[in-house]
Design a protein that fits this description.
Blueprint (H helix, E strand, L loop, with lengths): L1 H10 L23 H13 L9 H8 L17 E4 L3 E5 H11 L11 E4 L10 H26 L2 E3 L6 H8 L6 E4 L13 E4 L2 H8 L4 E4 L2 E8 L8 H12 L7 E6 L8 H9 L8 E3 L4 H9 L3 H9 L9 H5 L1 H4 L2 E6 L6 E3 L7 E3 H11 L5 E7 L6 H16 L9 E5 L3 H9 L2 H6 L4 E2 L24 E5 L15 E5 L2 H10 L11 E2 L5 E2 L60 E5 L6 H4 L12 H4 L8 E2 L5 E2 L2 E2 L9 E2 L1 H10 L4 E5 L9 H10 L2 E6 L2
Parallel strand pairs: 2-3, 2-5, 3-4, 5-6, 8-9, 8-11, 9-10, 14-15, 14-17, 15-16, 17-18, 21-26, 26-27
Antiparallel strand pairs: 1-7, 12-13, 19-20, 22-23, 24-25
Helix pairs in contact: 2-3, 4-5, 4-7, 8-9, 10-11, 15-18
Length: about 700
């Protein structure tokens, strides 16, 4: 009875929802949200527990999605109260969707309670480029794709095939809607905040809560306001906004906060530019990031065939889709923290290496490269990923490529130039409008519409890769942990805007400053690059792309879901044994982790992505990137503290397995920010599967 009531409540959130009170089934695009209902729920919260206090935008969206405001007796307290929320939508990528679907299969539900989509973007390895890499992924991951497709058909989930695009770009193009609440099984889900959606990255179990009509719990976040003033200069881009914010806040500064942008500078940004900023907000530890509804959002909605949403949102811009006027007038009173950014003073920047918050302004990059001893020569320049693959990003970078091409210049010798389109729609549009030709004209390889090198799916074969040697790459990605992109711990990855990446590709040097330095053309003559120019949206509209990359919307409730008991890629789940209610005893410290320990250290991606649906096999990579302070910082090496057990000294997974099989509980001691990054669910499940009782961390 409770679940049916919850489903009926969910269905009312869409003006075009089914009148039967059940999910409307797989969707190609989002329905028009029921803003009248959101306003009604928000006003109820305002008049009761909130005592009509002025609210920020993030608070409005959260309180409009409270599962049962009538049961609350007081206003939520940030950092203390757990909110029970009813999300509107779930989106999953193919690596994390495996575990989520395996869990949802245990729910007994015939169909997801909220609109849900699966996007196959993580398992495509970048190698030869484009369709060739998609075809290779079908050879290597057919079992996973067929499992996810069958589950999508059975449970009424929209299924986006490999090659269709990156989850966050596809959500922005099709499913994001201002003022709604979405859970996504990827840490960069906040990308949709660029379209005014409160989009939060979660693990599979949290997504399953929403899919199964169970209220989702979130500790009430603080609200950090970022005040944007002015307008970006010619060489600066939205990417430079978040690079600067990350430099100010550090990878920990946003933890426990929703980052909410406001100010006159907002209206100068494109919708996709705001998405870039929100996307990389994950790197400061924020719960999510969001922008108020702006004219550029309306333009983007109309350009992506969602005029109905734009028209409805226009009506509620002031009352629901932006902070109250009192908040904007006196931000320090209503935001828990306020960060000031003058867009006009912002210069292009580079963040890295090895951490996304080490910020160096372009004007200081040359001297810093020399002072730090960073490898100046750029071995690879990479544009794209979910962070920077919009039409505006690519058209601005292409304007620089055309300048170089007109001078007979190609990318620097020894520099590989790779471009990852965010979606089939983007790829088709850049092909039609000559952007792809501009990149290929200077030596680019256009990769598949997938994550690729950004998440370590990059086959840098022996003919191209600098082996284990120190080398520098520049990318427009969002994350740059050590060894993340190519498995080489000596690859220095610097994060920058697509425009700066293109400049690095042409010069082949970190030290090259396109604002002040000159290149040499094919005749040896010096010339300076003119500032990049591009379009917010394509003048001729977006090209539709190929039909095979449109979503599968084929609901078959009787569909069987294949899982081979002998599979090395998929494994049905068994429940963990519940806690027995007694204190832990005789727990051994397996490893004392030295320094940062991200999810890349705990549950590495790259070649391990293929085991995301097989917990037993994936557990073999548990903590293999962790440095052990008890072994002088040795990576993935521990001593066995139990006499008679073997191995006496070995890898962390091997000794952990030895403990588990002998019934010896163990624990981890860690420093700050343990678990920063993606794959947090696997990073929790794997140690538990191997017998870990607890992780004690500074934070």
């Amino acid at each position: 009875m409770f679940r049916q009531q919850a489903i009926r409540s969910i269905s009312r959130r869409y003006a075009t929802a089914s009148a039967t009170g059940t999910s409307t089934g797989p969707q190609a695009r989002a329905s028009v949200p029921d803003y009248a209902l959101f306003s009604e729920r928000l006003n109820l919260a305002r008049s009761t527990i909130l005592e009509n206090k002025p609210l920020t935008l993030a608070q409005k969206i959260l309180y409009a999605h409270l599962h049962d405001v009538g049961s609350m007796t007081s206003a939520p307290v940030a950092g203390e109260t757990y909110l029970k929320l009813s999300p509107d939508r779930v989106a999953m990528q193919d690596a994390s969707a495996q575990m989520a679907i395996l869990q949802f299969m245990l729910s007994g539900m015939a169909q997801t309670a909220v609109p849900t989509s699966i996007h196959c973007d993580h398992l495509v390895e970048a190698y030869k480029g484009g369709d060739l890499d998609v075809a290779r992924s079908w050879q290597s991951s057919r079992e996973i794709y067929e499992f996810l497709q069958a589950a999508s058909q059975k449970y009424g989930i929209a299924f986006w095939r490999p090659g269709s695009g990156i989850i966050h770009q596809l959500v922005l193009e099709n499913y994001a809607a201002p003022g709604t609440l979405m859970l996504g099984t990827d840490s960069h889900t906040p990308n949709a905040g660029g379209l005014g959606m409160l989009a939060i990255g979660v693990g599979g179990a949290d997504a399953v809560d929403a899919m199964a009509a169970i209220p989702w719990e979130l500790k009430a976040p603080g609200i950090m306001g970022v005040h944007l003033r002015g307008k970006l200069s010619a060489w600066a881009s939205p990417k430079d906004v978040i690079l600067a914010v990350a430099g100010k806040l550090s990878v920990r500064g946003g933890t426990g906060f929703v980052v909410e942008y406001f100010g006159d500078g907002v209206d100068s940004l494109s919708c996709t530019g705001m998405a870039t900023i929100c996307n990389m907000g994950a790197e400061v530890g924020a719960t999510t990031s969001v922008f108020p509804y702006a004219p550029s959002m309306a333009r983007y909605l109309r350009a992506t065939q969602r005029t109905g949403i734009a028209e409805a949102a226009d009506t509620y811009r002031a009352s629901y889709l932006s902070a109250d006027t009192e908040v904007v007038a006196d931000p320090s009173r209503y935001y828990d923290e306020v960060v000031e950014i003058d867009l006009a003073q912002l210069e292009p920047g580079y963040n890295g290496p090895f951490t996304p918050d080490l910020h160096t302004p372009r004007s200081k990059m040359t001297e810093t490269t020399q002072a730090e001893g960073w490898t100046d020569r750029v071995s690879a320049a990479l544009i794209g990923s979910c962070t920077n693959s919009s039409y505006q990003d690519l058209s601005r970078a292409a304007s620089l490529a055309r300048q170089a091409s007109s001078r007979g210049l190609r990318v620097a010798e020894g520099t590989e130039f790779l471009v990852s389109p965010g979606s089939e729609q983007i790829r088709a549009t850049m092909e039609r409008d000559g952007i792809q030709a501009a990149f290929e004209g200077i030596g680019a390889t256009v990769l598949a519409n997938a994550c690729g090198p950004c998440i370590g799916q990059w086959n840098r074969d022996a003919g191209r890769a600098p082996s284990r040697e120190s080398n520098s790459i520049v990318s427009s990605f969002n994350r740059n942990f050590r060894a993340r992109n190519d498995g080489n711990p000596n690859t220095l990855n610097f994060l920058a805007s697509p425009e700066m990446v293109l400049a690095a590709a042409l010069s082949g040097r970190l030290s090259f400053n396109p604002l002040t330095d000159k290149l040499r053309d094919a005749d040896g003559k010096e010339f300076a690059l003119e500032p990049p120019v591009g379009s917010e949206l394509p003048a001729e509209g977006y090209a539709a792309g190929r039909d095979e990359y449109k979503p599968l919307l084929d609901h078959q409730p009787d569909r069987q879901i294949p899982i081979d008991p002998a599979s090395q890629r998929l494994q049905s789940l068994d429940a963990f044994k519940p806690w027995n209610g007694r204190d832990f005893a005789d727990t051994r410290v397996l490893v004392t982790v030295q320094g940062k320990c991200t999810t890349d250290h705990i549950s590495a991606a790259g070649k391990w992505l293929k085991y995301k649906g097989h917990l037993e096999n994936l557990a073999r990579n548990t903590l293999i990137g962790a440095a052990n302070a008890a072994m002088d910082g040795a990576v993935n090496l521990v001593r066995n503290a139990v006499p008679g057990l073997t191995p006496a000294e070995g890898t962390i997974p091997d000794v952990a397995t030895s403990y588990r099989d002998a019934g010896v509980p163990w624990m981890v001691i860690a420093d700050y920010n343990y678990g920063e990054g993606s794959a947090r669910e696997h990073a929790a499940m794997q140690p538990r599967f191997l017998g870990c009782n607890m992780v004690v961390a500074r934070s």
